[in-house]
Amino acid sequence: IYPRIGMGKNITSNISQGGGISPIVPFLQSNFGGEWKKIKGKLELLCRTFPNRFESLYNYNLDALGIDLGIDSKGNIGLFEVNTYPGQQFFYAEDAEVRVAYYRYLLQLK
């Protein structure tokens, strides 16, 4: 989970157009104060449960999703879009660790 941050009054956060990224904990702490852990927990729960529910809409398995979410000033989470592959290019080391763990999991299923 990593936030992409829009610049100015833009709701979207295209990095190529001046948006930025941040690690999740400092972002939540600076924007939501004492509520940051609660919001992080909601995000983590959503990330654990949403993929299976989304995949159930298809007649085939999906191997990865990019889930674009928004968080309003009250900490409510909304869905922008779901992509069939996460467009990750900023946290290479963290992403590699997760991918390797997932590939090991897939090997155990065979």
Strand order of the largest sheet: 1-2
Determine the number of helices (DSSP H or I, runs of at least 4 residues). 3
Oligomer: single chain
**Helix-strand topology string:** EEHHEEH
Proportion of residues in helical segments:
40-55%
Average pLDDT score: 82
- Unreliable spans are none
End-to-end C-alpha gap: 28 Å
Radius of gyration (CA) equals 15 Å
- What overall geometry do the principal axes of the alpha carbons give? globular
Describe the largest sheet. 2 strands, antiparallel
Structural class: alpha+beta
Number of beta-strand segments: 4
Strand % is 15-25%
Summarize the structure in words.
With 110 residues, the protein is an alpha+beta fold. The protein is 43% helix and 15% strand. It contains 3 helices and 4 strands; from the N terminus they run E-E-H-H-E-E-H. A two-stranded antiparallel ribbon has the order 1-2. Strands 3-4 form a two-stranded antiparallel ribbon. A hairpin with a 5-residue loop joins strand 3 and strand 4. Helix 1 crosses helix 2. The model has no long low-confidence stretch (mean pLDDT 82).
